[in-house]
Structures are given as structure tokens and as C-alpha cells.
Records
---
Amino acid sequence: MAQIKLSNLRHSYNPNPTGDDDYALKKIDLTWEDGGAYALLGPSGCGKSTLLNIISGLLVPSDGQVLFDDQDVTALPPAKRNIAQVFQFPVIYDTMTVYDNLAFPLRNRGRDEDIVKRRVTGIAEMLEVTEMLGTRAANLSPDNKQKISMGRGLVREDVNVVMFDEPLTVIDPHLKWKLRSKLKELHQRVKATMIYVTHDQTEALTFADQVVVMQDGEVVQIGTPVELFERPAHTFVGHFIGSPGMNVLPCDVKDGGAFFGGEQINLEGPVTGTGDGKAEVGIRPEFVSVSKEGTGLAAQVRKVADIGRHKVVEAVAHDSRIHAILEGEAPTAGDAVMLDFKQSQTRLYKDGWLASSPGEGA
């Protein structure tokens, strides 16, 4: 296994880039520690696959370095990097048995058959496919085929990193949770450095200890799932993570306070951002309370969605939509209500970036 460090990394598919807009990956400095579970999360086209291909050696970056345990591997081909990769579609040999599929990466490197047997049976036990070892891969269900593809990535002991490129895309929704749980369990047991690339927030947040959120070729935040949810560093992170995402409301900043539709909104703490950039208030729906009477922001309920474990209320105030997540009783469409924002979770953003700091005792 290895620590992976990306230093001053940039990449452009344009042979003569002249500005940031010409770069698919803008400057990235990032370190993944040995044995960690990481996710690259972002929408299609944000640069995830480009970054993955640079780490694997399929692409040489325009600028910067890729280091494995401080060794510069930037110019090394994939075969020299000791990387295992699991793709969207299972990469297995249908005519081989499950045992032979799992054994192939080891036999291809000349390992003794006693080592092959020990590793294959161990991985099969972890994947819960021991009873399938004699079965031809062509006869497996799609989820079991992907399990075997994962096993082929995990069976070697000499890999620096195991990379998963949206491995659950073709799996039926009711099986995704089971495979996500199995992958998390496998990481805890084998302690390999793993990087999981996905556009699905649920997959990223349930697998990774640290999530790297990307937008337009940039890393906008790195953090634990809790950190990304509770304190988004950028409004994009607030939008992208959560269902529904964070409420982002236009505001004016004056005298150190934020005003939405002329009404002052109590922020988590002092304003830290400077300049005259676009100012917005961010508050997650989980921290918005709704009442028929009392103080707060006057609004009218537009609709209520009952999704089982809770209700999502959409209200309108000063021509802006605001979502609230409620348990138990909820108002009905057309009701006049008061919205109250939990102050410790109400943040200011300028030009998308967090521009407030927690108050004392927060």
C-alpha cells in the first residue's frame, strides 16, 4: 500500500492551454494516506475520471507530480505502478470459473499455487462467494460478477492502491446497499488504500472516511461525511450533498449582518469574508423549523412531500424557495407559516465560499 500525493497537478487536453478555462483539472494539491478509504465525488464532467487516469498512469498530467510514498511515478506506465482498478462494468473472464478469475492476477505474476489458493479462498470468504468458486463466471448474476471483479482487485497483496471507477453503476438499486456495505467491510479487513470515484453522494458518504468534492476541475472541499454535511465550504457542496440540498438565499451584508428581503438573519458567528462578492445565506433543511405562530421569517407553504420517515416542506419567502425537513405533523399547501433558522447552522457565503465563522461556544 502507499501514500499518494498529488503536487501542483494540472491537466489540459488542449496542447497549448492559455488560461484556467483550458484545463480539465485546475491546480490540485492532495495527499491520501496509506490505508485510507477515500472518495472522489462530483457531477459528470467535473474531472474525476481525468484525475483517476492520471493516478493510474493512463494519462500524464500537463503539470505537477504524482508520488507514491514520495517516489515520483508521474511518467511511469500503469504496469509499473502496482495499481488494481475496478470499473463500471465487471472485468472478468466468462469462460473461467470464479476460482480461476480470482487466481488470474496472481498466476499472471508467477505466484506459487499455495499462495494463490490461500489468497483466493480468503478473498472468496470475505466476498461470501466460496460456494461459487467452481461456477463459470458466465452463469453469475450481475452483482456477483461485480463482486468477482472487486475480488480480482483485492486478491493481490502488492498493490499500492485499489481504485473503483463507479463500480455500482450497473447494479440494481436494491443490491447497491448490500455491495456498498460489503466494500466498506472489505476495506476494514484488508486495510488497503482505496479510492472510490462516483457521482452518487450516498455511495461516497457511506464508503469513504474522507471525501474529495470536485466541481469544474477543482477540489472545492475535502472532509469527512459529517464535515461536508454540517459545514459546507462552498455552496456547491451544500447543493450537491443532501436531499434536498442546502437552502441558499440571496442576501445583503451591512454592518456585519446579513439581510434577506430586508430582514436580518442571525448567522452562526461573525462575517469573515471580505470584498463585495455575491453574498448568500446557507441553511440546510434539517435546521429549518416551521410553525403557524411565533417569530421568524414569514412564508407561505407551496407544497409538502411525505417521503415516509419525514416530510419535506417547500415554502416561499421573498420570492425564494426554502425547504424544511420535518418529523411528525406538517402544514399543508397554502398555509401561512413562520420559518426559524437554527443560528449555529446558518452560514454566510461570498461568491460561493464560506464567509462566516462559528460563534463562541458553537
---
Amino acid sequence: MFLQAVSIIAEERIAASMRNGDFENLEGKGKKIVFEDDSMIPEDLRMAYKILKNAGYVPEELTQEKEIITAAELLAAATDEQERYRQMQKLNYLIMKVNARRRRPVNLERDADYYRRVVERVTVRGAGREAQDR
């Protein structure tokens, strides 16, 4: 009953605003709507995350995903063996932290080729240094 009343009131206010021309000069009128990719967010949380984002709050999952991407990029760009090792430890820690929080593995499959190449690069460079140390 309550939802019906709210729905009726909302419809009446929308109709009144349309009659008054309140929707005529809206920003972006006539432009294509660009939808955000929220496929990584569980369906039942999407609306809540959208509200939080519009209010200026970023969900912790998005912050953590950005940290993981940054750590992977730093690992790929690192030339010093110690720096590569530090970045790999940081990347592993961040992934472990996300896995523990979600209670399921992080979906790294979309970046699996990139991750494989980073590991190969670290392995090849590390092996080359070990050979030089002998």
C-alpha cells in the first residue's frame, strides 16, 4: 500500500514537472548515455554502490582492484631485482587480502596473459642474475 502511494505521488510530480518544462534544458539532453561497466559488482550491490559513488564514496573493492592493477604495472616496469621482489610480494599480499575478504578468488582470468608475461619476465631476469652471481 505504501509503495503504491509513493509511486502515485512520484508519477504526479513527474507529470507536473513535464508540464512546467523542467526537463527541457537538462545537461546532456540529446546525447548518448554512457553506462558504466559494473559487471564486476554483484547484482544485489550495484544500486547501493551507484548511490555511494554518486555521494562521493568509493567502495573498498574498487580501491583494492586499482591497487592490484597499479602493483602489477609497477612489477612489470621494475628493472631492479629487489624492487621486482618487493612489488611481487605487495601484489601477492593485495590479492590474498581481497581473496580473504571475498571468500572467493579474485577474477584474474581477464588479465591471465598479462600476469603470465609478468611472471615470465621476472623469472627470466631473476634466472639471468643468478647465473651472473655464480
---
Amino acid sequence: MNLALWIITGLLSAVFFFSGAGKLLTPKEKLAKAPAAGWVNDFSAGFIKALGAVEMLCGIGLILPAVLDIAPALVPVAAVGLGLIMVGAAIVELRRHAVTHALVNMAYLALITFVAWGRFGPESFV
């Protein structure tokens, strides 16, 4: 199970780090032109940048504390933070009637929940 947690955590870390970097570094107007990115128009540019920064930090927080063995208890905390972001993302997508995108967010939520459960419980670093 530890191997599965590491693999899923690594993949999620990369996904959220690069997704956050895109939100942080790309102007809002350019993000809004991307396919299925209409949600961007519902939020301010500052919020999108802040969301990108939080996603990047959580992506780093999924891996770095455990790899460096410095405060590895932060791994499940980062997973919980990303879980909250995914719940919010699913709600936004459902309000926009984008059910497919909401389901994708819920799939990410399921993987994040697995990581949080595994690192808080049976395969914790503490």
C-alpha cells in the first residue's frame, strides 16, 4: 500500500504543481480562452493567482516533507487542502452545468482522499 500511496502522491503532486503554475503565470484573459476554462471569468485575477499559488504549494507539500523527512505530517495536511480545493472546483463546475468536469474533480478528490487517509492512518510517516 505504501508503494501505491507514493505513486499516486507523485502523480497528484505533479498535476497540481503544474496546474497551479499555469494559473499563477498565465494572464486571466489567456486562461479564459483555453477549452473548458470558462470558470475563470467568474473569478478575479487575484483569486486565480492565489489559487495557483496554493495549488503549487500543496503539490510541493504532498512530496517534499516526506522525501526530506522534515515534518512529514504535512503530507496529509496538504492532501486535505487539495481536497477542499477539489470540492470547491466541483461545486463551481456543477453550477456551470459542466458535469463532466465536476466528475473529473471528484476523481481527483477520491485520489486525494486515499492519500490523506493512507498518510493519516495505516501508512503514516509518524
---
Amino acid sequence: MKKIHVGFLLSYDYDKLKLSIPPVYKDADRIFVAVDENLSTWSGNKFEIDPQFFDWLEKFDVDKKIEIYRDNFYVPGLTGIQMDTRERHLLSLKMGIGNWLVQVDSDEYFLNFSKYVKSLRKYDKYLDNPQNHPVQISGYHIDIYKYLDDGILYVKNTCKVLLATNYPNYKLARQSRERIIYVNSFTLHESMSRSVEELEYKLKNWSHREDVNPTFLDKWKSANKDNYKDIKDVFYLKPTQWKELGYIPTKDPIEIRNYFEKNEDMKISNFFLAKKNFGQWFKHRKIFKLNKRVLFEEYF
């Protein structure tokens, strides 16, 4: 118990796991990869997995810490987001309550997982009786919006990403609506940065397919290095969540990672984290009335 267990969902974009698993491998105690036993997406469409992927996975897993978890994750009658939430819950149960349950999507790449693990370890006390004090440990996304011929477009504002929990009572995907503890940790997120064909396939098969705003795809297709400064409000759900785009003249993963590690505009200040964490602590207190007196007790 009290291990670092990392879970991934394997689906049509499984090949991206070759980029998302290596950054967490060394510091994870165990890694679980969930795959639908019938190779169905949350839309009920079939996908195929090249056998060479499993060859790669076996060769890469030199410490024998990766486990494939097969189950029925497509349930007719449920929405995409309901199946997303259900699969994450089942995966977390497989990972084992009493450990840190870190769920990373296949298109999320940690910049420094070791740093994130050190942040988690500060809160190990919450792994004792986790159902009594559920928390989520949030890092931040740096979203790659689009790959161009000679570089990338990225979203200039970071957003939270709920990566770890001690108790997986998920309500909406990875969101449990419990107390959030924010830490200074980043993942590169390739959510929308795909080929046109790959993106259109994703929009038809992922859990948010019913909620994508109708202006998103046209903006995405038109964006380039010459007009990106003029394109605003580009998020795929509520457009204003992604306000502006930036440009980097490279597609090399190492150069991209180095750029963001040095970019002061994307830094999260200690004051900002303290303010956010105090707000969460205050929000999740419980108020008890006893003998006509009001007693305050921390939710955690």
C-alpha cells in the first residue's frame, strides 16, 4: 500500500502511449493499461491494435511493472462521458485503493514526473482511510493545439488537470468534485494536435463528442503561423477557456519540453498555488452544530 500506481486508457490512439508511458516509468511502482476486451470505443466503433505495440510494451517493461487490464468498457445506453467515468473508476479499483491512483491520458506527457511524485508524497497521510478525506492532486496542462509543417501552435494559458486521487469516487471523467490540492507540475497535452483525419475520428469517438462547440473545427483547420495571433477563444467545449495561441518554430519533443521549462509566461507562482489551495481548504470544511455551538472541522 501507499505506492504510486499509474493508469492509462488504451484506445484508438494507443500509439501515443509510447510517449506517455516512458516519462512515468521510473518513478511509478506499477502501471496499469486498461483496454476494452472487444476493442470498442465509447461510441461502439471497433479499433485495431498493431501487435507490434505489445512487442514494444514487453521490451520496454524491463522491470515488469506494467499490467494489461482487459474488461468490457463499452456499455450501450450510456453516454460517452458516462463510460469514460465508469472505466476510470474500474481502472482505479484495479489499481488498488490505499495507493496514489494517478491516471494519465495517452496524449499527456509529464515534463517532470519525479517532481510530481515528491509532491504526492507530502500528502501520504491521506492514504490512511482515504474514504474519510478524499482529495485530488492537480497539476497543469500545457496544451499543444496544432502541429504545423515547421512548428507548433500552443495554448498560452495553462489549465488544471486532475491527475491523482486517493479515493476514486469520480463524478465526471477524472473529476470527483472533492477537495483539490494544486501542485507545481506540468504535462504536455496533445489533445487536439493531430492530423485532420485523426482529429475528426477522435471527435466522433471520445467522451466529449456530444459537447464539442460547432466553431471549434473550422478555427482549428484555419489556424497557422501567420494568423494565430488573430484567432481567439479556441477551446473545444466552452471556447473562452482557451483565449490565445502561441507559436514555437520546432516540433522536436525535447526542444518543446525545454522551451516550456524555461518559459516564464507559463510558470505557476507559489502565491497562486497558496491562494488556490487555501480556497479549496476553506470550501471543503464541514460545519457541525453541537449543543447550540458551531464547531468547524476540516473536511480532510
